[in-house]
Specification:
Elements (H helix, E strand, L loop, with lengths): L1 H27 L28 H40 L1
Helix pairs in contact: 1-2
Length: 97
């Protein structure tokens, strides 16, 4: 239970770090929007070249970096949820056994 709590605290700090990166990318270009929990509006299509890469290469690369960081953030949130359910179940088993 203690190791699970330490793991959750470490994941929390990693989540705060990724949120700081997302806000950093949002401040680099106003076209990305201010949303922390959303991918950018122009979604890349798997298997096809992103046609907007020809128009504005720097923005497209910035958008792709932000999308990768947002995906990492969602992965961390999912891991935090699963770990918190594990810690909660161990906590309840400790007190109800």
């Amino acid at each position: 239970m203690i190791l699970g709590t330490i793991f959750l605290v470490i994941l929390y700090f990693i989540l705060k770090y990724t949120l700081a990166w997302i806000s950093y990318y949002n401040n680099l270009d106003p076209r990305l929007g201010d949303s922390t929990w959303r991918f950018t509006y122009d979604y890349p299509v798997i298997g096809e070249r992103d046609i907007s890469d020809l128009d504005d290469k720097e923005f497209v690369r910035l958008r792709r970096k932000k999308n990768k960081i947002v995906l990492l953030m969602y992965s961390i949130v999912l891991i935090i949820f699963i770990a918190s359910m594990s810690v909660l179940s161990k906590f309840l088993l400790f007190f109800f056994d």
